[in-house]
Automatic annotation (TrEMBL), chains A, E:
Residues 12-255 form the ABC transporter domain. Signal peptide: none annotated. It comes from the Bacteria. GO terms for molecular function: ATP binding. Pfam families: ABC_tran. This is ATP-binding cassette domain-containing protein. Keywords: ATP-binding, Nucleotide-binding. InterPro entries: AAA+_ATPase (IPR003593), ABC_carbohydrate_import_ATPase (IPR050107), ABC_transporter-like_ATP-bd (IPR003439), P-loop_NTPase (IPR027417). The lineage of its organism: Bacteria, Bacillati, Actinomycetota, Actinomycetes, Micrococcales.
Automatic annotation (TrEMBL), chains C, D:
InterPro entries: ABC_transp_permease. It is a multi-pass membrane protein. The chain crosses the membrane at residues 27-44, 64-93, 105-128, 134-152, 173-196, 227-245, 266-294, 306-326. This is ABC transporter permease. The keyword Transmembrane helix applies. The keyword Transmembrane helix applies. It comes from Arthrobacter halodurans.
Length: 266, 317, 331, 331, 266
């Protein structure tokens, strides 16, 4: 396990992360590298430790061992606020929405818009109208059939909830965007929209980490694929050089990665 | 805190040095100025006698379990005597009996037990008499006006509350349930509750002219309501206690007259009796009335009273 | 603030949002219960609906009414405050004793400082040490109560007239006599309503109460929010203390011992969930009025204290049942 | 019961399950707090650790200790019972008055009937009408308390010796004097522990408290479970009433007014979550003992009542802090 | 909208179901037919009302209008207990697990096994050992990497939780098994296991309703496909006669179904 590389094009990287829960080791010496302007897919079996890895990278979990660097500088996020302050936005697998609040409020939670002028600066009044308007706009792009942004999130269908979480992240990420299974509950068409959205984000120059079990979509959008197995990075492969069957075989351990792939790819 | 270190069990034997005498004091609660006065007086008297007081209390008015636990713990600590203001309930009698069996002298302060001989001795106000005094003053102050009476009681069923209430009616010359009684509320002796109760009662009984209050905070609360309604000059307020705040209120004209009682005397007499028992083995006995005096600045012919100057010199709290 | 451009705006659903927002805060049930109670007592008794009686009813509700606002804030975060009454009483004693020594204005300021400090102690224990609010405030209740007794020597202290009793002064509104205390209470409700519904802090309070883990993940400073709420409850307790001195111009260390239960009752009857995250401060106002109307109406009807208790108990349950039914209708 | 055949059995994880189960019920924190308290008071005072004092401590804890079991059950379902003390007091009066009229055994049976009925009223309101337990039990508390006063005519009634005071009889265990009441309390703990951990009903109680919607979806009769718990709490209150008559052989309508807060405190210090679904009855036993030890130890140390209150308040918070720290370690 | 057919081979059917939430109509006159021994896939956009339909069929929701029949007899489930009593087991989309209870307890919740003999019959003692043993066995079949069935469900990964819910349903369903997106959070391999499991259940003669957004798997396992659109059944198609692109087009309304498909298929 070497010190984090200071590769100039690496945005977010980690070396030797470990997280234990009693007898369970969720992360077992994992490495990670996200390069500028790429879509990095993270795949792996259920319970491989993908979500735990992402939580460690975004401050939602404090690793027992290992180091994380952002833009070559070592960082240590005490909580998700620190990570967000550094420009990292995340869609967590369990969505992190507040059921009893409405959609617009959920989208803007933690970075509410205030009214212009004295109402906003002195009386700190929220600009609810604008937040509703813009949230409705963002959601319309995804076409997940949400009728009113003043509905409580608890009244939404499973896929619609996921859409809300995705929209929030996409709208606010500045440096890195991380999505943990953003399309799991989405329909065919809606999934397509999210994949399109991910492309658009990359085109704005923001790198995206995408965790997904959906191989066709992973292959459709990923620049590189990080294969996670038994709590650590097993390989990083280039989707242009490997087909789906090979990647699944790597994931389950049926196939051995090449040395280059083992060491984090080209 | 204790300086002495008495390991001696609860033996009935006498003749020990006074310096080793530990005395328990169990009050109903620890937050009433009356009980605070008892505690302070007991501690003063104990210091003078070279004894030591451990003060415990129930958690609320009527907390038998708390008083029983206090008695048990004091006996376990080897006190010579226990001074207690017992809850009205007979619930603590078994614990008192056990304490006495263990050779501890038990003295009731302020409130008698039922039956009275459950304890060795009682030092208390004759509350019935205090009530009669209050009633006779109010009756005299009304002169020949037709009485229209409001009663602000304490807690339903309380021994002291019942004595005072009955005494007041006796002093007024009224029967329980007489038509002259226009309204009654329980206040728990609490100023806030009394004010609210009086406000509501005045809505129903706008012509009230005589007011019985269980204690001085109740009187003060009631006065506030009466003042808001602009009826200060219409209603004669009687009360019982003799706290310094109460006497001040008599002076200010808030209360017409109050019946003073003397907790300091109760506590001091109690401590002396225990110390005496420890020294000589002689147990005190019977009921000792520690006295009641009407305090008012508008004395009325035929009713003995003292003024507030005397009151301020003898008040408690 | 980065946000994508929004050419596509859906034509739907921005209208009527305000009204729906109002109805969604399920105030309908409590309001109905209140109306029924008022109508019943107006018919059943002669003097319930007199302006004098209604004015009294409001005045008698002021202290609990103000404290209930603090309680609402805390319950919205999923907590509970058993110390709220003790803090207010400590406040009245500080006001009276410091007022005696340094003048009433200093006394008032000291009250604010002490009450906010007391609330902040709760805040630190709950927000920073992450302890259960029930135990924290039960513990500080005991401590504040005992400290008040020691500070007061179990004595009562009379208010110096003027500033200290200002909120007890009467105010003639022509048809209606009331006090400045009643206005102060309403002002507290309006200000906190504004905070809860119109500012980011308010939304964060709901979020922290609704799902603390999610709130932390989306980047809300949950600890700061929690601390703020407890400190704010302390400030509100200071206002309640001031109002209490106006109502009963004596600082009594034994006053308002049932304030905790009474405020919680008002909050819950008002439809706020004890699990946090759902409710409104106007619900609390209505809840508080329901209890006051019941008490006052039963008194006006000449019901004895014990039977009054039985009736109040049953009617409170009935009010909540009505609310439940109304909500099922709405769903 | 249909179940697929299970040829493949994983070799793992059936071992050590019991131990892990014990530790997972996070009793470590409360236990440590209890031990520390015992050690400190043993060193600091002469007579705290005497068998006489410890025996007293247990006897003084019996009534609250028994009631706390009922409270634990209710809190595990996400509820709260503010009426539990009032039900027990009603029970003592029924025991005494019916006992006077028809003999002590009939009195005892009547107590059981009345207490279970009282609990069932709470149960119907919570489980069938779906009302918030806090309001329901606050309402029934008021009603039961007032009803007790009316039934008793605000008088106390002495126990007839024998059956009624049986749980107060002493029992000499050689080294240790205790009462049948203490044994009864321990028996209640063991029986309820068995129910909670070893029977389906117990698992359903946890499920209903942990996630009521999910519990209903997987087919648990949530209403039946809730009702059962409240009725059971009534039955336990009857046992507490019997023990209370043994301890103080007088039925007093004003007794045990703080029982609700005291039982809730024991439950929460014992590590049970007020949000339901997590906790254990032995935690409650330890929580109750922690408070008793603090009270008794401070008395033995000769601390005055008011300072005792302050100390208890602080120490209770300290005990919970310790628990919190222990749990974070364990995680 | 006709009365429910009494087609002898129809196990579960519904006609004209309606469910409104204020202004939102989640089910808008939906029909439904499940035949004996088949795997019926239900597909549709997010928010189309699939979960609402399934909730109405399994007693989790009371429809405002419409009728449901089981084995030709009209039924009205007041709650999920009624439906289970009739032999219908369901994996709900939000899983319905109790986070604070362990895996074995969750699997057997509501139908716990008791010890044999007097311990079980009189003392009603649970046979925890057997429940753990059997739950572990069921879960091992799915290969979702659960190490101990005495772990609390809250410590599981998203996919593992889903596995627990699936296992529970598969083990206990007698008459009908319904699964609402059972593989959304599952990995490639684990999804394969669940699809295999569904086949096995059908082979046992129990019909399965599968809601899924995963078209390849739908086509791999379904005998018929119920296409849901705007709160009602738009078509029932035979996967042997339609390809994926056509079905997706039907789902989004881009393609019109044939009359036969519109009326519930052959
Ligand atoms: N708080 C916890 N306590 C104990 N074990 C945990 C905890 N959190 C996660 N684990 C375990 O760590 C392992 C990895 O979980 P993680 O959620 O990271 O998996 P994943 O790769 O995201 O799986 P999935 O694809 O199913 O979402 C799992 O076996 C899980 O049981
Ligand atoms: N309780 C409710 N209150 C208001 N609207 C609701 C409620 N439940 C569901 N809805 C609405 O009904 C519609 C259908 O929801 P449903 O969950 O049935 O969709 P679905 O087809 O299962 O979608 P998904 O594929 O995303 O799970 C959605 O628009 C949703 O917002
Ligand atoms: Mg995951
Ligand atoms: Mg769905």
């Amino acid at each position: 396990m070497s010190a984090p590389e200071t590769n100039p094009e690496t945005v977010l990287s980690a070396r030797g992360l470990v997280k234990r829960y009693g007898s369970v080791t969720a992360i077992n010496g994992a490495d990670f590298d996200l390069r500028a302007g790429e879509v990095l897919a993270v795949i792996g079996d259920n319970g491989a430790g993908k979500s735990s890895l992402i939580k460690a990278l975004t401050g939602a979990l404090t690793p027992d061992e290992g180091s994380i660097s952002l833009d070559g500088r070592q960082v240590s996020f005490r909580n998700t606020l620190d990570a967000r302050a550094a420009g990292i936005e995340t869609v967590y697998q369990d969505l992190a929405v507040i059921p009893a609040l409405d959609i617009a409020t959920n989208v803007y939670l933690g970075r509410e818009l205030r009214k212009p002028g004295i109402l906003g600066s002195v009386f700190r009044q929220l600009d609810k109208k604008r937040m509703r308007h813009e949230a409705a706009g963002h959601l319309a792009d995804l076409k997940i059939g949400i009728k009113s942004v003043t509905q409580n999130v608890e009244t939404l269908s499973g896929g619609q909830r996921q859409g809300v979480a995705v929209v929030r992240t996409a709208a606010f990420g500045k440096r890195v965007i991380v999505m943990d299974e953003p399309t799991a509950a989405l329909g065919v068409r809606e999934t397509g929209m999210v994949i399109e959205l991910i492309r658009k984000i990359r085109d704005r120059g923001i790198p995206v980490v995408l965790i997904s079990h959906d191989m066709p979509n992973v292959f459709a959008v990923a620049d590189r694929i990080h294969v996670h197995r038994l709590g650590r990075r097993a390989a990083v492969v280039d989707p242009k050089h490997r087909d789906m069957a090979e990647v699944v075989a790597l994931m389950t351990g049926a196939l051995e990665p090449t040395d280059e792939e083992k060491n984090g790819g080209a | 805190g204790s300086g002495s270190n008495d390991d001696a069990g609860a033996s009935g034997s006498s003749g020990e040095a006074a310096g080793d005498v530990k005395i328990g004091l169990v009050t109903k609660t620890d937050t009433n100025p009356f009980f605070v006065k008892l505690r302070e007086s007991a501690q003063e008297a104990a210091e003078a006698e070279g004894a030591e007081v451990v003060a415990l209390a129930g958690k609320f008015d009527g907390d038998n379990e708390g008083q029983v636990a206090a008695i048990e713990n004091l006996v376990a600590q080897g006190v010579k005597g226990i001074l207690i203001t017992p809850n009205s309930s007979t619930g603590i009698l078994a614990a008192i009996e056990k304490a006495r069996e263990a050779g501890v002298v038990v003295i009731a302060l302020d409130t008698a037990t039922e039956p009275e001989d459950a304890v060795d001795a009682t030092f208390a106000t004759d509350n019935k008499k205090a009530g009669v005094l209050q009633g006779s003053y109010v009756k005299a102050a009304l002169g020949d006006k037709e009485p229209s009476v409001i009663l602000l009681d304490g807690t339903p069923g309380g021994t002291v509350d019942t004595f005072r209430h009955d005494g007041f009616l006796e002093g007024m010359g009224l029967e329980e349930g007489a038509p002259e009684i226009k309204g009654q509320e329980n206040t728990n002796g609490d100023q806030t509750k009394a004010q609210t109760a009086m406000e509501n009662l005045l809505q129903r009984v706008p012509d009230a002219n005589a007011l019985y209050t269980i204690n001085e905070p109740a009187a003060a609360g009631a006065y506030q309501a009466i003042k808001s309604a602009g009826k200060e000059d219409q209603i004669v307020i009687g009360s019982i206690d003799g706290s310094c705040t109460g006497v001040e209120n008599v002076e200010k004209g808030v209360i017409g007259a109050t019946v003073m009682q003397f907790p300091g005397t109760m506590a001091a007499e109690g401590v002396k009796a225990v110390v005496e028992y420890a020294a000589s083995g002689t147990k005190p006995s019977g009921f000792t009335d520690t006295g009641t005096v009407i305090i008012t600045n508008t004395p009325i012919e035929g009713v003995d009273s003292e003024d507030t100057t005397w009151g301020m010199d003898n008040c408690w709290g | 603030m980065t946000s994508r451009s929004t050419e596509t705006v859906p034509p739907t659903a921005l209208k009527g949002a305000r009204l729906r927002e109002f109805i969604r805060q399920p105030l309908l049930g409590p309001l109905t219960a209140l109306l029924i109670a008022v109508v019943v007592f107006s018919v059943a008794t002669d003097n319930f609906l007199s302006t004098g009686n209604l004015s009294l009813l409001l005045q008698q509700s002021v202290v609990i009414g103000i404290l209930a606002v603090g309680q609402t804030l805390i319950i919205l975060t999923g907590g509970i405050d058993l110390s709220i009454g003790a803090v207010a009483i400590l406040g009245t004693l500080v006001m009276a004793k410091v007022g005696l020594a340094y003048g009433p204005v200093v006394g008032l300021l000291a009250t604010v400082v002490v009450c906010v400090a007391a609330g902040s102690i709760n805040g630190v224990l709950v927000a920073v040490l992450n302890l259960p609010p029930f135990i924290v405030t039960l513990g500080t209740f005991t401590v504040f109560f005992a400290a008040t007794q020691l500070y007061a020597g179990s004595q009562t202290y009379a208010a110096i007239d003027g500033v200290q009793t200002a909120l007890g002064e009467s105010l003639d509104l022509g048809v209606f006599m009331t006090t400045y205390g009643v206005l102060a209470m309403l002002a507290v409700y309006v200000v906190v309503w504004y905070m809860l519904t119109q500012t980011a802090t308010g939304q964060h309070i709901y979020a922290v109460g609704g799902n603390p883990q999610a709130a932390a993940l989306v980047g809300i400073k949950t600890r700061k929010t929690l601390f703020l709420v407890y400190a704010l409850a302390g400030l509100i307790a200071a206002v309640a203390a001031w109002a209490a001195m106006g109502r009963i111009p004596v600082a009594d260390p034994n006053a308002f011992q049932q304030a905790n239960l009474e405020t919680i009752t008002a909050v819950v009857i008002g439809g706020t969930s004890l699990f946090g995250g759902r409710g409104s401060v106007f619900g609390t106002l209505i809840g508080m009025l329901i209890v006051s109307v019941l008490r006052s109406g039963l008194t006006a009807a000449g019901v004895d204290a014990l039977y009054q208790n039985i009736a109040t108990g049953i009617l409170v349950i009935a009010a909540v049942t009505l609310d439940q039914v109304a909500r099922r209708r709405a769903a």
